[in-house]
Amino acid sequence: MSLKIRKNRAATLPPNCPVGECMVLLGGAWTPNILWSLSAGPRRFSELRIDVPGISAKVLSTRLKELEEKGAVERRIMPTSPPSVEYSLSELGAEFIPAIHAIVEVGYRLKQRRGVEVVRKETPAAPVPATGG
Description:
This protein is mostly helical. Helix content is 44%, strand content 11%. The chain has 6 helices and 3 strands. It has a 3-stranded antiparallel beta sheet with strand order 1-3-2. Strand 2 and strand 3 form a beta hairpin. The protein is extended and about 75 Å long. The termini are far apart.
């Protein structure tokens, strides 16, 4: 005997799902970690390698290029000798920080539910507004 299919009472998502749009940007491995690290202000490549332990230089470089192409990260060449590059959040990138923060909070609660001791790190301050340029 088959079970009757129940009607889904959730609101129907729009045809071009906005969740999918966000996940296109956030979906890459390490992407939320990179955005989170940039939420406290501009960082150089080597600083991001330290901020995101376990990420390879190749993956970090790839993710930064993708995030720059998608408009979430801005790349700025510093007029130093030798030249250095800083990455910062764009306005679009900064819009993701509250969502990532909410996911972090859920993650803490999930760990507590499993009985894992949770050591909270200080969360970054509000995102630094992107400088036009």
